[in-house]
Amino acid sequence: MSDPQQQPKIMAKVPSEVRAPPRTRCPLCTELFLAPKILPCLHTFCLPCLEQLEPFSVLGFQGDCSSDSSSDRSCLLRDLPQPLLSILCPVCDTEVDLPPGGIQELTTDYLALNEVLLETLQAQGHGVVCDLCVDGEAAKRCHTCKANLCHFCSQAHRRQRKTASHAVVDMEDLKGYNRIGKPILCLSHPSEELKLFCERCDRPVCRDCVVDKHRQHPYDFTSNVIHKHGDSMRELLKSTQQQVGALEEALHQVEGVGSTIRSHVEAVAAEIHAFADGYIQAIEEHRDRLLKQLDDLKVQKENLLHLQKAQLEQLLLDMRTGVEFTEHLLTNGSDLEILITKRVVASRLKRLIRVDYSVHPGGDDGIQFSPQEKAGQYHGYEVFGAVLNKAVDPAKCILQGEDLHHARQNQSASFTLLCNDALGEQMGRGGEFVKVTLVHKDKKDCAIKPAICDNGDGTYHVSYTPEVLGTYIVCVSVKGQHVQGSPFTLTVKNKFRKHQGVFHCCTFCSSGGQKAARCACGGTMPGGFQGCGHGHKGHPGSPHWSCCGRFVKHSECPGGPLGKTLQRSLLRTVAL
């Protein structure tokens, strides 16, 4: 296998006025990054700053020792299990899980390291140290080795036969470059550069790795696999960008509804003032009461919209952070930097895409004033006028139907949701966000997918077909809140058993006098007849089913006489 990266890359210069502002400073200490690490939420911080953060929660322990012997206990004392921790991101306040090895195992932001080096070069007295002696200040840079050299090491570099032909430039000449590539070395083999990518382990490796821990694993040079993995990240980026557009549109709608509510409130307030002027003291008191009610309604609706707006804004901020980070990585990152960061970026973007949110505003502008509505008497005066708010109140919504608590296996069942407002009056219109879940009480992975039909008059028909027997927990919510009586239990029984006999007064009549005909009621009559006859001993005294003896015509058959299994000879009953 030949290395396609044998030739050194020529670093292109870009005008300083079009160069993007560097992401070089830690949000916590505001200093240049020192060993920058990327959190799963795609925010970068200095390693020392992260080490000062307090753990948010302990998720568990890595490793276990179940034996109680003294040797095992000494093993535990020697090698205690390391706790799995999580921390809160200081920027977005997201709880992120740390790797088993802690903060040290977080992905290094090599792209930020490159930008720190560029900014250090552009500053007066750049202070970049020599990569070879680590003592002197770097004055030269070898493009072939990608190493910074002091004057002494630079002269030695030119004298050596292997490095005499390398391209060496002054550090001052690098200030206009958009990036300065520096070899990224393997953590397991510090003398080897990461040039290969292990497909099975999904991580960059060095030459020593492929003959050691990654032996017989499929691998290739990073430049050969960057196209496949880069395209997958671009697809995730595209999907995330679409979500950003939807969130922006949802926020615009929320703000529009809020503006409409405020304008409606102002209009209704003007109507209330005009109506109240004619009644002096009684009407003024009535007016004040109406205004307070209206203001409470405004606060209620705006609080609901504000909560939804805050949730959408936070989600939008998280998605923008992911988009900006990924775009910056794909635009400015090298092949190896993209591959190193790919896992944490893809994980974050997938999690953001899976977030469930509603693009419909949580509140409505259904506020009206009715001057003809009777409002009672104030100081002996009959007053009129009331604020009508036809907004659904989940606490007033009612569930109705015979199949509300009981259903049969593999048989369609249904119930009805009646939506009412805060006064208990039916809404009279549809369009509400109704959610119904049916989950098995003992089998959490067993759920029934219901069908919800909006009748357009404030009622919703919910139908479902259970396949598994048992008890289910049913949750019915409107606008994210449980309705009256929710959650409740639903019992699914076996399929309805039909009667196999006839509903008769006795076997003597229904069989036409057959002596061998028997009945599940157990009655007999003299004269050689084995079945029952009305008026004779053992007759139950009323019409009944010949297969089980039950008296109710429209009932379920238990499968035997009064719920017990019939003997084979007794099954010779009337079946006309």
UniProtKB/TrEMBL annotation:
Gene3D superfamilies per record: 4.10.830.40, Classic Zinc Finger (3.30.160.60), Immunoglobulins (2.60.40.10), Zinc/RING finger domain, C3HC4 (zinc finger) (3.30.40.10)
Top-level taxon of the source organism: Eukaryota
Bilayer-spanning residue ranges: none
UniProt feature coiled coil, ranges: 280-307
Ranges of residues in domain RING-type: 26-69
UniProt xrefs under Pfam families: Filamin, zf-B_box, zf-C3HC4
Entries under InterPro entries matching the protein: Bbox_C, Filamin/ABP280_repeat-like, Filamin/ABP280_rpt, Ig-like_fold, Ig_E-set, TRIM45/56/19-like, Znf_B-box, Znf_C3HC4_RING-type
EC number: 2.3.2.27
MF term (GO), any: zinc ion binding
Keywords from the UniProt entry: Coiled coil, Metal-binding, Repeat, Zinc, Zinc-finger
SMART domains: BBC, BBOX, IG_FLMN, RING
Residue ranges constituting the B box-type domain according to the UniProt record: 125-171, 181-217
Filamin repeat placement: 389-492
GO cellular component, one term: nucleoplasm
PROSITE patterns: FILAMIN_REPEAT, ZF_BBOX, ZF_RING_1, ZF_RING_2
Family the UniProt entry places it in: Belongs to the TRIM/RBCC family.
UniProt protein name: RING-type E3 ubiquitin transferase
Taxonomic lineage of the native organism: Eukaryota, Metazoa, Chordata, Craniata, Vertebrata
